[in-house]
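Researcher: Good morning. I'm working through a list of sequences from a screen, and I'd like to move beyond sequence-only analysis. For each chain I'm collecting a predicted structure so we can compare shapes side by side. This is the next one on the list. No need for commentary yet; just the structure.
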Amino acid sequence: MRVARAARSVDRSDSTIGRRGALQTPLAQRSLPIEQQFACGYISPARGLFFATPTCYDSGMETGAFATRIEELVDLSDDDLNATLRAAELARREAESELAATIAVAEQRQLHQRDGHRTMKGYLRANCNWSSPEATRWRSIARAVEWLPGLGDSWMAGRIGHAQVEVFGRLFGNRRVRDQLPEFTPILLDNAEQLSFDNFDACVASFVSQADEDGTHEDRDTAVEHRSAHMVLNGAELDISAVGGDPVTATEVQGIGREFEQLEFDADVATRAAQYGDDAAAHDLPRTAPQRKFDALIAIFRLAAAALRAQAEGGAAPTLANAPVVVNVVIDDATFQRMLAEAGLLPSLNDLRG
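Model: Good morning. Structure tokens for this chain:
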């Protein structure tokens, strides 16, 4: 609500209106140093959201307000600085929850049409000066807050943050689990409030896998069907990438890569030891980790080419026959029995019931 009120209280007489009606910062204010524009509210941190507030400009605020605030924070004790950080985060959560609520109501009213925009995304881009991805994310968040019980309350009260709400937004956008989501939202909210973000994200992934068993297989089949790779020269540099494939192949290739990376690491350690002797631990390795990853990839290609040439020199036709692969499949008992029953290898529960 604070953001919405700030927008309504703006004196537009000293402002310029953009191509699609977006309120923009007057040219006089744009010439101010960036820290003063930020302190006056002309621009917001990282988001690009700005409002013209001539009262701040006319108040005679001296240049360097942001630097002054930095000096004030530097003088704080560790405990006070920690408390200030927490207070700022709580204020951010309250303000962003209000912003999401405002977007939800604006979309319900189809306000973008009255404002001369064909889509809600265009409306948000114009009025908030957002990028298209940013507008899309906030629309997803606003819809989730509107439809999922308790999500907005937890956010506004400061019990969860933007990162957790964005996960709910993506989850609500998954049509294959959306119908089941309201029932499980209270449980997921408890997880969001009590667990670290990584653990909460893992809980959400587990929920999706259980609620959308077929979706996992569809995603896998899509990844296999649309697998692709390219190897090109980008100027004088090598550009290699690969995407898609099945989980078994991905795990196999990742394991091979790690083996070669370890060999490159061992070679660096040996080189450093030979160069510096007993004082080797005090010196950096000859290559960085990214450089070793690159060299490991090149070594894989060269070793594969050498194997093909060796086959040809031995009189055999070069072949790309795969080496044996051992894979450990981890699956819960209930899912394993269900899959066996679906394959006809076990009687189904209905068969057992007669």
